[in-house]
Write a structure and sequence with these properties.
The chain is of the alpha/beta class. The protein folds into two domains: about 30-245, Alpha-Beta Barrel (TIM Barrel); about 260-385, Beta Barrel (Lyase, Ornithine Decarboxylase, Chain A, domain 1), CATH 2.40.37.10. The protein contains twelve helices and 18 strands. It has helices at about 15-30, 40-45, 50-55, 70-80, 95-100, 110-125, 150-155, 180-200, 210-215, 240-245, 360-365, 370-375, and strands at about 10-15, 35-40, 65, 85, 105-110, 130-135, 160-170, 205-210, 225-230, 260-265, 270, 290-295, 310-315, 320, 330-335, 345-355, 355-360, 385. Strands 1, 10, 11, 12, 13, 14, 15, 16, 17 and 18 form a ten-stranded mixed beta sheet that branches. An eight-stranded parallel barrel has the order 2-3-4-5-6-7-8-9. It is elongated. The chain binds pyridoxal-5'-phosphate. Pyridoxal-5'-phosphate (PLP) binds next to α9 and β9.
Length: about 400
């Protein structure tokens, strides 16, 4: 049967067709003249920055958002010249020069950082491409109302040293209706604060506030740009967001496609006698004679240990159970009811095989992780490749 040729014990495949499909869906959904920033932090949610960025560019995406400078450098290394990169999170002070040199857009959320960045841009005779993050109620990062006077003073002092690329904020949980009142209040504050910037003579090129959930649930808050992460990879931020979407549509099926498949192979097959324990400890006792398959993927590869004795994988087009404890580098499956399982057989950990499917959702429910968490924990070291 099919073998997975790879230099790593498992391989992650991304479907180019699914990437194009999801981005077409998002473009149709987003209002006219609203730019899409593709969020590729967390190694493109585990999909792999180096593969995902060029694939998204070929579908017309020209703006990418990351959390930190290491991620920005990886996008920079593979992107087209005209494509923009935006750092939404942490930049160590020593890296400001690099950020400015490479014309990377970046969020500023403290007066001190704004002064440092603009002063350095002034010395370097370049323009800093800043997005000022406003605190509207998430209470994480962002300028509060009491910091605005200082902010404007710095902006006046260095008015030739920056482009105000954006005024932005982040909403605290638009994926749940329980947060509705809080979100409305945040947007009200955002409008008020951006109005104050205008009144003081500072016009931002873009206003942006929403990620995937609010893009869907609050289309009126899309402003000039949406920062879309999880949707482009084919997942809904929450069940509620999906229900919100389909309940307003005639067609009730999911408009998104999954991009990722995660595959490994059988490394050994053996027989276990009735009454023997399998794997570490005594969590699995063979109630009858069994045939087991050993797969070279364990918790160090991102296959959660909490799937011990409960995970499901596909071998020869059939669902089989993971038995015993997941090891650091291996897992064991019960293949007693399959004929002729052989070393080298393809194993699907996530994805499809002969029309059977293991979804990330089923996987994350079993292991009690969010889709977001499970995907971003897929190690960078696993080989990744694009498929048609
Ligand atoms: C991660 C993130 C996003 C994208 O979130 P999704 O729910 O994946 O769409 C948008 N904005 C900020 C500031 C983020 O940190």
């Amino acid at each position: 049967m099919r073998a997975t040729a790879s230099h790593t014990p498992s391989v992650i495949e991304l479907s180019s067709e699914a990437i194009a499909h999801n981005l077409r869906f998002i473009k149709r959904f987003v209002r006219k003249n609203v730019r899409i920033s593709s969020v590729v932090k967390g190694n493109a949610y585990g999909h792999g920055i180096e593969l995902y960025v060029p694939a998204a560019e070929s579908c017309g995406i020209d703006h990418f958002s990351v959390f930190s400078i290491d991620e920005a450098a990886r996008v920079l290394a593979v992107k087209q010249a005209e494509t923009s990169v935006m750092i939404m999170g942490w930049i160590p002070v020593e890296s400001l020069r690099w950020v400015l040199e490479n014309e990377i857009e970046f969020w500023v959320f403290e007066p001190e950082r704004l002064r440092e960045a603009l002063k350095l841009a002034d010395i370097m005779r370049v323009k800093a491409h800043v997005h000022i993050e406003l605190e509207t109620g998430m209470n994480r990062t962002g300028f509060g109302p009491l910091e605005l006077n200082d902010t404007w003073a710095v902006m006046r002092e260095y008015k030739h040293a920056f482009v105000l690329q954006g005024l932005c904020t982040h909403l605290a949980g638009a994926e749940s209706i329980a947060n509705h009142v809080r979100i409305q209040r945040q947007i009200k504050r955002f409008r008020l604060l951006t109005g104050l910037f205008n009144a003081h003579g500072f016009q931002a090129k873009t206003l942006h506030a929403v990620s995937s959930a609010a893009t869907i649930v609050y289309p009126a808050f899309q402003f000039d740009m949406v920062r879309v992460g999880i949707l482009q990879y084919g997942y809904w931020p929450s069940k509620e967001t999906f229900i919100h979407y389909v309940s307003r549509r005639k067609k009730k099926q999911d408009p998104l496609n999954r991009i990722i498949s995660w595959k490994s192979c059988v490394m050994a097959v053996k027989e276990v006698r009735q009454g023997e324990f399998v794997s570490y400890g005594t969590t699995f006792l063979a109630a009858e004679d069994k045939t087991i398959a050993i797969v070279p993927t364990g918790y160090s590869h991102g296959y959660s240990r909490s799937l011990s004795n409960s995970g499901r994988i596909l071998i020869r087009g059939q669902h089989v159970s993971v038995i015993g404890m997941i090891n650091m580098n291996m897992l064991i499956a019960d293949v007693s009811f399959l004929d002729d399982v052989a070393v080298g057989d393809e194993v699907v950990l996530i994805g499809e095989q002969d029309s059977q499917v293991i979804s990330v959702a089923s996987f994350s429910e079993l292991s009690n992780q969010l889709n977001y968490e499970l995907l971003t924990r897929l190690p960078q070291g696993i080989m990744r490749r694009l498929t048609p």
